[in-house]
Amino acid sequence: MKLELHKVKVTGVQWGPVTELRNGVLTVNKAELLAKVSGDERLASLDADLALPGEKTRIVPVKDVVEPRCKLEGKNEVFPGFIGDVESVGMGKTLVLDGAAVVTCGKIVGFQEGIVDMSGPGAQYTPFSQTNNVVLIFTPAEGLERHDYEEAGRLAGFKAAHYLASAVKNSVKADVVETFDFPTLAQAMTAHPGLPKVAYLYMLQTQGLLHDTYVYGVDAKRIIPTLICPTEVMDGAIVSGNCVSACDKNSTYSHLNNPVIRALYERHGKDYNFVGCIITNENVTLADKKRSSSYATKLAKMLGVDGMVITEEGFGNPDTDLIMNCRKAETLGIKTVLVTDEYAGRDGASQSLADACKEADALVTGGNANEMILLPPMDKVIGFPDFANVIAGGFQGSLHEDGAILVELQAITGATSELGYSKISAYTM
Fold first, then answer.
1. Per-residue pLDDT at 110 exceeds 80
2. E-assigned strands of 91-174?
């Protein structure tokens, strides 16, 4: 499967009479944008605003972030099952508006959305302070159930992202074309003899209503572990429907730009033979946890891999899935590296994960989500600022009278991403 990402750099966004991209600036016809995403009776109101890097602007509560993309050729389309048909993606040419993002903002489950500051100390913790953001703000129809509210907002975000890319695709030329060519399974198994075979076990959040991740439009609760081509992930086969803590929520943008997949590609054929991705779900019952972990690690054994990177989404209950996957893989002779974050208390002295095993001896951390931060007042707030008092990582009184917010990093969108799509990093001298 060969995928070309045609990336056009976006350095700014503004309202204007025509949606177009010139000299790096994306001009958006606001009325046309809203017309493209409106019409869902589940939303009582829908508006749009702009948030640019460096501005004293705050967005709260953030639901999802989506990168504007569309296909440049063929019948299939990005975000299959929502924008496109359910046919396979991960092939052909895809336009990417690199540096732009659609941010969805709504009080769906107020305590499980996040904050994005475009400047100040909070901006240092979220990658979406660096994107040129078109923000959709929506309120629900009276009496609407929360899961219907989430779905309506999710679809609006995908439609907006697709509209922005589609509107300019015939008038722009890529600044960079990235090509990812993934071989057949038979070819992958015999490629690069002498190098260890490595797979990626990609855990998707699926722990109950409003804790959803979708694969080709299907709620991943309904799947058993399976193989997916890495290029399918880059083309929108996996999207977020989650209302979980903002710091380690894998947004749709993060799935599209999964840094683990990119890193494995970069070292493929040099340090190891990257043979593919296994997707699995995170479960609630013990029986489901056992079933998924056994099936996922069995697939890895069938691939004959020597090592495996495992990422999770969320904390607490998902830690048990992470550790179960690790222990079973190691028992099968597969070396593992885990990627997670920590909830070690505000002083950093508490147990970081809800579960552990002696086999989990190679781990990458995205940081301690309980660390406190004071977000200063902003000149402009997009959304519903009072939700800072109930957001995960906040508390009654988090929102100060002057507009400042005292919260844990848990409240900042993408702050401790367990895919590594974040701004926290460390190095050794």
1. no
2. 92-98, 100-105, 114-117, 132-140
| 277 catalytic per annotation | no
Helix axes 30-37, 146-168, angle to 10 degrees: 130
Place of tokens 């998707």: 204
Of 112, 80, 108, 107, the residue nearest 94 (C-alpha): 80
- Decide: 13 and 177 in contact? Cβ < 8 Å: no
% of the chain exceeding 70 in pLDDT = 99
Burial of 302 (0-12, 13-18, 19+ CB in 10 A): exposed
Report residue 220's pLDDT band, with 50, 70 and 90 as the boundaries.
very high
- Residue 87 CB neighbours (<10 A): 12
Range in 8-22, 66-80, 151-165, 379-393 with the lowest mean pLDDT: 379-393
Lowest mean pLDDT among 23-27, 132-136, 137-141, 240-244: 240-244
Give percent helix, percent strand, percent coil of the chain, each to the nearest 5: 25, 35, 40
List, for residues 166-211, the tens digit of each pLDDT value.
999 999 999 999 999 988 888 888 888 899 999 999 999 998 888 8
Tell me the backbone φ, ψ of residue 387, rounded to 5 degrees: -70, -10
Q: Is the separation of the CB atoms in 105 and 149 below 8 Å?
A: no
Instruction: Tell me the CA distances in angstroms from 166 to 73, 76, 97, 159, 387, one per residue in order.
Output: 11, 13, 10, 10, 34
Confidence of residue 380 (pLDDT cuts 50, 70, 90): very high
CB 5 within 8 A of CB 177: yes
Measured distance CA(283)–CA(281) in Å, rounded: 6
Asked whether residue 304 carries a pLDDT value surpassing 80, the answer given is yes
Q: Name the residue among 113, 130, 56 with its Cα closest to residue 403.
A: 56
Give the integer Cα–Cα distance in Å for 286 and 235: 33
Cis peptide before 61 (omega within 30 of 0): yes
Going by C-alpha positions, the residue among 383, 389, 390 that lies closest to residue 404 is 389
Identified catalytic residue from 70, 105, 243, 247 = 243
